[in-house]
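Same chain as my last thread, 344 residues:
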Amino acid sequence: MPNHRPRPSRIDRVLEASVVGSFSRIGYAVRRRTQRWDAHAGAGEGRRALVTGANSGIGFATVVALLARGAEVVATTRDATRGAAARDALLDAAAQAGMGVDRSTLATRLTMEVLDLDRLDDGRRLVDRLRTLPPVDVVVHNAGAMFPERTTTDDGLERTWQVHVVAPFLMTMLLVPMLANRPDPRVIWVSSGGMYTERLVVRRVDSPRGYRPAVAYARAKRAQVELVAELHRRLGASTGIAFHAMHPGWARTPGVSNALPAFDRLMRPLLRTPGQGADTIVHLTLSERTGDDTDPSAGGAFWGDRLPRPTDRLARTVCDDAERAALWERLMQDAGIVRPDGPA
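reply #2:
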């Protein structure tokens, strides 16, 4: 029988409208209590997830939570040195998470891989590597950063655009055949509440003029959300893959502290822990089918604190189907994906 989840309550709607109350640790604490969240303890048995950007922040917390709950995880970092250090830290943290699993058992569930999203060939290489390993059921596109200056990668693309959108899109498309053969496959894009400030305009997704770090980041995060809607429309029904986007709220992570020091200092008492920010990712990865409008196996939603949320707060940011189709074509071209009838 489906386990029906609560729809947004009056308290939840008030929090959502307040923004600060919703995105801060206040929203997390109130919703956890009023919605009586479960801990998903042991729900990861038999699930295998790929989590990018696992050496710190939200990615690190996601891997720890999944390991502690019985899942197997392929975790990526930008280089082998970071990977070696992250592996020890991840195992220590998961062993201390209080689920009663010893470190040696956790070690059998964790695989570390190198992935530098600055290079599209690195994404292709990792997908080739994954084909030689037990198949993954869930992909969590978490890796990213806010870059202080506009730079171009060796692939000829603006870095923010490539790291957050093009490279993950390429990997997703290459992984579709593997995921489509799994019993309950899901792809989760870790976006940001900052995306609410921007509308998708494909001709400026790579900030060709007047680069501003926070704006470029918000544009990329908006593109992720609109891309999820397009992936769901084009591939959801035919593949059975549930495509989701989510935002973790305002969490205190190394990325936030380094990129937005003033915001970090001002909001520090209200910022969530990385584990609180990762909670909805874990929920989307491990929750069973519910059969209702909060079913994580259905796909196509934008999530925050375990519930689907509106994708727009301002009328000026609403995206139409034509712009999403243009985004698809731009990504096919930038990712170098070849169709049966020739290059994109």
